[in-house]
Design goal:
By secondary structure, the protein is an all-alpha fold. Helix content is 76%, strand content 3%. It has a single domain (2-147), classed as de novo design (two linked rop proteins). The protein has helices at 2-30, 46-51, 62-82, 86-118, 123-147, and strands at 56-57, 60-61.
Length: 150
């Protein structure tokens, strides 16, 4: 079970990096710093999502929250995998579960906004959504496996 848990940890790191990369690339794409790859058609149009009133909270663009979220996931998984102290591992795993569940709730609301209120989608946002739900599934799998050992 330990080797499977290690694989899950690496997968969490991979998907956190994918989500973080999408959130870093998004403002570059919107500002035309890189070739525009997101405004494909009326269904996939990052510019329309970014121009909506739902693209920021408290004056902070949502991609900044994505940077923070995926960075927290990376820090917590690093603590969980590299520190040998059982208390640090235990509470970093509890924190991973909490952050992942809260992230999934927030992203579920964002999906509602994008699909129902805005009526279009953003490929980079969708990439981060999928990454978060995969991270949540992996974290819960690790948690249920380790819960028996705590």
């Amino acid at each position: 079970m330990k080797s499977i848990s290690k694989i899950y940890n690496y997968l969490i790191i991979l998907f956190a990096l994918i989500g973080l990369g999408a959130m870093i690339y998004l403002p570059l794409d919107l500002n035309n710093t890189v070739p525009n790859s997101c405004n494909i058609n009326p269904i996939f149009n990052c510019a329309k999502v970014a121009a909506s009133p739902y693209s920021s909270y408290f004056g902070i663009p949502l991609y900044v929250y994505g940077w923070v979220f995926f960075s927290i996931i990376l820090v917590l998984i690093a603590l969980n995998t590299t520190i040998n102290d059982s208390i640090v591992r235990k509470y970093s795993l509890y924190s991973l579960v909490l952050v992942s569940v809260l992230g999934a709730i927030a992203i579920s609301y964002l999906i509602y906004l994008v699909v129902i209120k805005i009526g279009t989608s953003c490929l980079f946002c969708d990439t981060s959504y999928v990454s978060e739900f995969i991270i949540l599934a992996l974290v819960l799998r690790i948690f249920t496996a380790r819960k028996r050992r705590f």
